[in-house]
Amino acid sequence: MKNKKRLGVNIDHVATVRNARGEKYPSPLRAALLAKKCGADSVTIHLREDRRHIKDGDLKEIKSKLKIPLNLEIAATKEMLNISLKFKPDFVCIVPERRQEITTEGGLNLKHNSKFLSKVIKLLRKNRIRTSLFIEPKKKDILASKKLKVDCVELHTGKFCNKVNQGKNYKNDLNNLKKAADYAKNLNLEVHAGHGLNFKSTKILSKISNINEFNIGHFIIGESIFEGFPLIIKKFKKILK
Ligand code: PXP
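That is the input. Now the predicted structure with pyridoxine-5'-phosphate docked in place:
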């Protein structure tokens, strides 16, 4: 039997729409609370260094009012570590960040600055924050994550999703994700997946038993324009049941 998977709803792009006008509307806090009401298991926000969508005030407000786990995505920097330790979100996911990129284009380079990464993970975990690393679905990155003593890995699903969307053969990418999930689980790491997911790609990946959590943002917000936020969240919950 398929085990139940958790859905994390990323609301960054509610803030993107708000910021396009420099107004207070639409409110990421309202989206976070509504996501909970519609069955989301957690809410994700990415506080980027350039604050292009989520702002510090959103983090403060959502952390104080949300009654399900808040997953904060951060780059591994001193500033973001200090903010995480101050606000103590339930979960932190460390992601790579390049200023010019449109979105998080790939997994972390774990060789780069691994000493600092190890210190960040240690401090977050010491503060009882579930910590994950956003990585490519590769054996060497999973092993490196294990050595860094993190709780979870989030597998970057971007390449797989692109192939699904373009109608290309995705067999190899699916196989890589499955093998990576099994390998990580064997090492006692909890496995998450995210990036570029829509109904179709989520449905395919939901069959991988070792993936416990899906973090989905852009498609949910985009599709909500046409069908409404509650309905889209409920559809994803049904897929992940
Ligand atoms: N997971 C992580 C770690 C991410 O960085 C992102 C993108 O911010 C997502 C999931 C969500 O990706 P998308 O917005 O494409 O659904």
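DSSP finds eleven helices and eight strands in the chain.
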